[in-house]
Design brief:
The protein is α/β, with parallel strands linked by helices. Helix 1 crosses helix 2 and helix 10 packs across helix 11. The longest helix is centred in the last third of the chain and has 17 residues. The N and C termini lie far apart (about 65 Å). About 40% of the residues are buried.
């Protein structure tokens, strides 16, 4: 209405209007289990009617929390980390927290800067897929009691809360599947010298050893930055493998974007997938079914990683006593599509 005076609605106004205490209204807004359903419904209906917006600064002053959680990933373009961010954000949002996302761009120095920057904004917890191996900054956070959770990439030398997959098992599953499809010259486009890269490489080698197949350095190509410009690097790596004599008849790629790049090179060379070269990745990205040749992959359960990391972070923030350190290692699963099947099919089969 013209000339009307608009006033900021405060929590105590809602409490007074409903004949409740501010503590009760606060508990409803924080989804606290102590509140009865009828009271919760009354408060939420009034909040909606008045378009009440909680004062984050005031809440922080009262609780000592920012209600912010930071995520630092090696790449914001990689679908794996994007899916983790979505799952993480969804769960913490339900508990009244917001997610601040940052990228280290696979640069350990930039990662240190981003950690410092986010901590300067008083994050209640950090979730980090580390780009480096230096544990100094993590030790500093430990000494100050700063909650953080490592995801995807474990770090040697520190005890930290961690959520990831059994990377050795992922490499083993992928390679053994290629062997079961009749491949005998199996190449690997591998990742960096970190826990996922090394673990998947170890699984690849173990599967070859257990099936008495050769593991040749000629069939292993390393990519330095597998989460940045990944598809291009996969294409370049596959060009090197096609120069081998004899060519590989199967390729396990560290992740799906590398495999997608490798696929483009194989098809450009007028070779058939999987008849000439079978191909498998890791990550089970949503678009794998829609590629020119649907891509077999190892499912890393990115959504579960994001949710478990969120649960750990919230537990670290809200526990009255320091929780014990938890390590969550998920078992990967094989998803078979046309890129490894001799008879083409668009239907994914989970084993």
């Amino acid at each position: 209405m013209k000339g009307a005076l608009y006033m900021t609605i405060r929590m105590k106004d809602i409490a007074k209007d409903l004949g409740l205490s501010q503590a009760t209204v606060s508990k409803v807004l924080r989804d606290h289990p102590d509140i009865g359903e009828s009271t919760r419904r009354r408060v939420l209906e009034r909040v909606k009617e008045l378009d009440y917006q909680p004062n984050s600064l005031a809440r922080s002053l009262v609780t000592g929390r920012s209600f912010l959680i930071g995520l630092i990933a090696p790449s914001l373009l990689h679908p794996f980390f994007a899916e983790i961010a979505i799952a993480l954000s969804s769960l913490i949002r339900d508990r009244g927290y917001s997610l601040i996302v940052s990228s280290s761009e696979e640069d350990p120095e930039l990662e240190k800067e981003e950690i410092s920057r986010l901590l300067g904004h008083h994050m209640d917890a950090l979730v980090i897929a580390s780009a480096g191996s230096n544990i100094e900054q993590f030790e500093r956070m430990d000494s100050k009691g700063q909650p953080y959770v490592l995801i995807d990439r474990d770090l040697a030398g520190i005890e930290a809360n961690f959520v990831g997959i059994n990377d050795k098992r992922a490499g083993y599953l992928a390679t053994e599947h290629l062997i079961s499809m009749g491949c005998r010259r199996i190449a690997h486009i591998r990742g960096q010298d970190n826990s996922p890269g090394n673990g998947r490489f170890e699984g690849y080698k173990e599967a070859l050893h257990n099936h008495r197949l050769p593991c040749s350095d000629e069939y292993v190509v390393r990519r330095s930055y597998v989460d940045i410009e990944t598809t291009r690097q996969g294409a370049e790596a596959m060009r090197l493998l096609l120069e081998r004599d004899p060519k590989p008849d199967g390729v396990f790629c560290f992740n799906d974007p590398l495999a997608i790049g490798a696929m483009s090179t194989i098809l450009e060379a007028r070779l058939r997938i999987p008849e000439d070269i079978a191909l498998i990745g890791c990550g089970n990205l949503p678009n794998n079914d829609w590629l020119r040749v649907p891509l077999s992959s190892i499912d890393q359960h990115s959504h579960t990683i994001g949710r478990r990391a969120a649960e750990l972070a919230l537990n670290l923030i809200e526990s009255k006593q320091t929780p014990r350190i938890q390590t969550t290692v998920l078992e990967p699963s094989l998803v078979v599509r046309a890129s490894t099947q001799k008879k083409r099919t668009n239907e994914a089969t989970r084993l």
